[in-house]
């Protein structure tokens, strides 16, 4: 297993995308440093009709990418999503790209800054243009990964973007994303991200939550998933909805049901007089 400590890399060099074998898997990019970046292809993106690109959040890097003790590691999430996409659309050709293609923040302190997302977004844009032009590309960001997606959307070749447990997408509004495709968002019922500060000053803060009413995202149901890191839980309504979006089955996506406001109780004349 590769071990790595806190990141000390100031600004990573641009990734070079090409298909290769490494670490026993199919790679699209890898900078080879323990503290660095890795992009894995699950399925055959070159011939796929639909490609989902997973963009994870904090504390993910080459040094812990293959650690099987991490139940929520991006690679396992990608495998779960690929399997679910095949179940939802068995007749379609699908693939997943697990994109740990930026220097992810280490801990909460670094996650307040947009600097890692600013540095990583251009490489995500380049990935969307490296993938075949015939495929529908869906970005699926989780946590800080949604900030990277938000800063890449206006320049990338993307049909849909899914924001999971987002601290904000790096802009002050949906309009600033510069994205005309479909924007989706979800937040689990017990996700602590709801308490993340929503400021946007200089390079600090990530703006409003895309699940906020009026933001302009289509908010979908996750089911009763626990915590902040269970959006890809196998069999959950969350991962099924992500898969439905990724293969274009929009009509099958279950929206969040908003309780109807209570109608004022009608007061009879006799009751009014008695009061």
From TrEMBL:
InterPro entries in the record: AB_hydrolase_fold, DUF1023
Domain DUF1023 positions: 31-197
Lineage: Bacteria, Bacillati, Actinomycetota, Actinomycetes, Streptosporangiales
Name of the protein: DUF1023 domain-containing protein
């Amino acid at each position: 297993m590769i071990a790595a400590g806190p990141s000390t890399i100031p600004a990573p060099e641009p990734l070079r995308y090409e298909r290769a074998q490494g670490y026993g898997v199919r790679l699209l990019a890898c900078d080879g440093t323990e503290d660095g970046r890795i992009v894995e292809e699950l399925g055959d993106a070159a011939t796929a009709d639909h490609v989902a690109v997973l963009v994870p959040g904090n504390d993910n890097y080459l040094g812990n990418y293959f650690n099987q003790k991490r139940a929520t590691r991006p690679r396992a999430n990608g495998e779960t999503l690929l399997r679910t996409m095949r179940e939802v659309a068995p007749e379609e050709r699908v693939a997943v790209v697990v994109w740990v293609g930026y220097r992810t923040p280490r801990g909460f302190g670094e996650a307040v800054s947009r600097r890692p997302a600013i540095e990583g977004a251009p490489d995500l844009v380049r990935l969307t243009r490296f993938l075949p032009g015939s495929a529908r590309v869906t970005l699926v960001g989780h946590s800080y990964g949604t900030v990277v997606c938000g800063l890449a959307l206006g320049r990338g070749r993307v049909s849909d973007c899914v924001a999971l447990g987002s601290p904000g997408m790096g802009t002050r509004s949906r309009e600033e994303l510069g994205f005309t495709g479909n924007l989706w968002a979800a937040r689990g019922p017990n996700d602590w991200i709801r308490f993340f500060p929503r400021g946007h000053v200089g390079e600090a803060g990530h703006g409003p939550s895309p699940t906020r009413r009026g933001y302009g995202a289509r908010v979908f149901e996750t089911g009763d998933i626990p915590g902040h890191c269970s959006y890809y839980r196998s069999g959950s309504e969350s991962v099924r909805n992500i898969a439905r979006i990724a293969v274009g089955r929009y009509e099958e996506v279950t929206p969040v049901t908003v309780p109807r406001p209570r109608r004022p109780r009608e007061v009879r004349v006799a009751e009014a007089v008695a009061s």
